[in-house]
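Morning. Coffee machine broken again, so started the prediction first thing and wrote up yesterday's gels while waiting. Chain of 231 residues, entered below exactly as on the submission form.
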Amino acid sequence: MLIPEMDGIELPRELDYISTGEVDGVGTWRELPEDADLKGWRAVPRRALWELTGEISFAKANRLYAEMDWRKNSRFCGRCGTPMEDGEDNGRACPKCGYRIYPIISPAVIVAVERENRILLAHNSAFPSGRYSVLAGFVDLGESLEEALRREIREEVGIEISDIRYFDSQSWPFPRSLMVAFQARWASGEIEVDGKEIDSADWFASEDLPEIPGSVSVSRRLIDDFIKRNS
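Came back before lunch.
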């Protein structure tokens, strides 16, 4: 993602542009050739935009990226291979067979499980060393959100949960997820990590937490809510 190069100057907290295609009149995008002149711009990871420019710009930029990425990967009809055309309803249509597609959003669930004033936190094998978070996973075909929660917790740490309550949601564009956050209670079983995706997990008190995710994510909001209620 490109932002204006302003070394020594504080970036505006809410950018109205990120790179150059419109989404609801906000910001633009374009793919740049390898020899593009990028003087006056600098590349930053999309995750860094929250801290650099604020929550609104983070959301704008990632929506633009998702739009660009989806259009780049949906140029041809999945049924007959004909080049797709843009529709009037944010989708794309095949002019030959009529097949229609729309931007892909992958639902995922994330949950803070509590047991006797402690929260379940786990280290995912993809995390930096020492960082723990609440558990999450994608929803499978045919599952409800609650079924997905129970399955993920059972598969990853071997326990059963109950008292599932909705907490919040967040568009999470890595790559294009909708995170639906819940809180739940431990029901039965003892922690037994799967050893593949999760390599360590435990129950933590609010005053004795390991390293946790930054404020950009709903996972952190779940943990902060636990701390607030149990400190």
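The first helix runs from residue 49 to 53. Going to sketch it on the whiteboard this afternoon.
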